[in-house]
Amino acid sequence: MRLLFLPFLFAPVLVAQDNGRDLLNQGIRDFKQAKYSEAVAAFERASSAAPNYVTAHLYLAMAHLAQWVPGADSPENNFHATSSEREFLRVLALEPNNIVAVKSLASLSFNQKKLDDSKTLNEKVLTLEPNDRVAYYFLGVIAWSKAFPVRMAARKKVGMKPEDPGPLPPSVRFDVANQNWAIVNDGVAKLEKAIEIDPEYDDAMAYLNLLHRERADIQESADGYRAEIKLADEMVRKTLEIKKAKGSNGGSTMSMAPPPPPPPPAPASGTRVRVGGNVQQANLLEQPRPVYPPLAKQARIQGTVRFNTIIGLDGKIIWLQVISGHPLLVPAAQDAVKLWVYRPTLLNGAPVEVQTTIDVNFTLSQ
């Protein structure tokens, strides 16, 4: 008799699972069309219909992540970050080795500047995928992110500018070495492993250059300092050679960060036209140049930061999205471009919004 009741016992689960799949497919369609709010609603209903449906929780996490803007501090933005993290953790509760959830949490934590959390998560990535070059890269970047402020504070304390030759004087060098030595050496090892996996990993070389400069400043002798600077300069040379060979200015691994929200809808009172970047350049009225980041200049990093952008009816930037660019150059480029002003574009005598691309070039000669 018990066998007769088994279909009835499992029927609600199967119905819920089928309903969850239907809602999931609806959410995926919305997600692909950048209708993130609608996608969130569908994925929430899918995960409620089938609470153990890993894929529904995973897509719900990604839909929140797609609406989160790194660095923006607002209740709505924080809600998306918290919701995304919660859903990824639910995925891991159901499927502890889900690599997409682990990698996404590692990236989210890094962009929230939760470096210790990101370090732990990237280390977990390597237990699941031992040859993941990006995880090694992030661990190297985290090491630099921890070491650099300590060294800069010590230089400031003794009146040394960032560009002044080292090493640090004994009065501060011991304390900096005590804090940074193991961190820097581990970071160097991680980046070297990333480059071993991918010999043309130019972003990893750029940060290996920076870590050699960290290690240079805590050397006991001028000879030791010069040896580390020589290694750093060699990494710069290789980085530039590879970028040139690739025929690009190097999109960054840091683009693993979640995408920003989609462009705002066109105004009801007008339309939006797409214009080529070179054509729109001729309409510039105000173009403040970016301040070359001292650290990027010291590391001899150059290249182009490219943006998708929307220019408002008044000629001012109303939306900006990074397409590519080295992470040490992106913030300075963003700060400058936000102040650019264009001559309003007219269509049949009325102003319209313009969607275009913007390139900001950084060369060491500037």
Topology:
Elements: H1 2-32, H2 36-49, H3 54-65, H4 75-94, H5 99-111, H6 115-128, H7 133-157, H8 170-197, H9 202-217, H10 222-246, E1 272-274, H11 277-281, E2 284-286, H12 294-298, E3 303-311, E4 317-324, H13 330-337, E5 341-342, E6 345-347, E7 350-362
Parallel strand pairs: 1-7
Antiparallel strand pairs: 2-5, 3-4, 3-7, 6-7
Helix pairs in contact: 1-2, 1-3, 2-3, 3-4, 4-5, 5-6, 6-7, 7-8, 7-9, 8-9, 9-10
Which key features would you list for this structure?
TolA/TonB C-terminal domain; 366 residues; alpha+beta; Serine Threonine Protein Phosphatase 5, Tetratricopeptide repeat; five-stranded mixed β-sheet; 3 domains; two-stranded antiparallel ribbon
Overall geometry: globular
Total domains: 3
Percent of residues in beta strands: 5-15%
Number of helices: 13
Radius of gyration (Å): 25 Å
What portion of residues is helical? Answer: 55-70%
Low-confidence stretches: 1-17, 248-261
Mean pLDDT: 82
* SSE sequence, one letter per element: HHHHHHHHHHEHEHEEHEEE
Largest sheet: 5 strands, mixed
